[in-house]
Write a structure and sequence with these properties.
It is a single chain. With about 250 residues, this protein is mainly β. It has one domain. Helix content is about 5%, strand content about 60%. The chain contains two helices and 19 strands. Strands 3, 4, 5, 6, 7, 8, 9 and 10 form an eight-stranded antiparallel sheet that branches. Strand 18 and strand 19 form a beta hairpin. It is globular. The two termini are about 15 Å apart.
Length: about 250
């Protein structure tokens, strides 16, 4: 279970790979090692107790996510629908209480799900994704380039009740590459407004960036969480050799 904390004077990352025996699930809950998530009284409760890397530490606490509505649609990201994306509750509210470190806060939240029948590198070259809260709910953009060169562009206006409206394809807007590894990134935004800009880069890795950007969508100036992913970079041998320093494996 990937748990990350930014801000409040902290930057902590936890993502431990575990064996199949550490997994249990049913229709309302999922447990991986010492962490679990479950539905309870219409809210998603996430209890986690994870070790951080590369700086050893601990992330322990609870997230209570309350969706305002559930989005019924699932979207195929490849032509054969082997990879699916479900924006379950793009307009939600979260209450976060941490024991380690001792921090509590609440605010706007997002909840989605990806699942597939094949490794991502078998079908995708790269993608850019972003989600911005809006006065109506949320605007979510998914821009995928597949290995065969075809492109899947999703631009969704999602209401607080979970209703989905497709937007016309927005023009591509460049963003500066990652500062350390020069990871390419771009987004899509309405024409005529100020160009999108990067406010903060939270993760700057050889194959992935996670950033907060300022942009214009649905006639509103918004702040969006943005990510870029390059699968050709991910599969390089030297990148694979670096992964255990951020993603340790438990063999029991």
């Amino acid at each position: 279970m990937n748990v990350v904390l930014y801000g409040h004077g902290h930057k902590r990352w936890a993502l431990t790979e575990r064996r199949r025996e550490a997994l249990s699930r049913d229709t309302t809950s999922l447990a991986i090692g010492p962490s679990q998530m479950r539905w309870e009284d219409g809210a998603l409760i996430v209890d986690f107790d994870e070790r951080t890397m590369p700086v050893p530490g601990r992330l322990k606490g609870r997230v209570r996510l309350s969706p305002s509505g559930i989005t019924p649609q699932r979207f195929g990201l490849d032509a054969g629908a082997r990879h699916m994306w479900w924006p379950i509750a793009p307009a939600s509210r979260a209450e976060v209480t941490l024991e380690h470190p001792g921090v509590s806060f609440s605010g706007d939240a997002y909840f989605d799900m990806n699942y597939g029948a094949r490794p991502l590198e078998a079908d995708f070259d790269w993608w850019n994704w972003s989600r911005a809260p809006t006065s109506r709910g949320a605007c979510v953009l998914y821009d995928v380039i597949r290995l065969d060169g075809s492109r899947q562009v999703l631009a969704l206006d999602i209401g607080r009740d979970g209703s989905v409206r497709d937007l016309e394809e927005l023009p591509v807007a460049p963003l500066p590459p990652g500062t350390i590894w020069r990871m390419p990134r771009e987004t899509r935004a309405e024409a005529g407004g100020a160009p999108p800009r990067v406010l903060t880069t939270f993760e700057d890795t050889p194959f992935y960036t996670r950033s907060e950007i300022a942009t214009r969508l649905l006639g509103e100036d918004v702040r969006a969480m943005h990510e870029s992913l390059s699968m050709p970079r991910f599969t390089r041998g030297w990148v694979q050799a670096l992964l255990p320093f951020r993603m340790p494996r438990k063999i029991w």
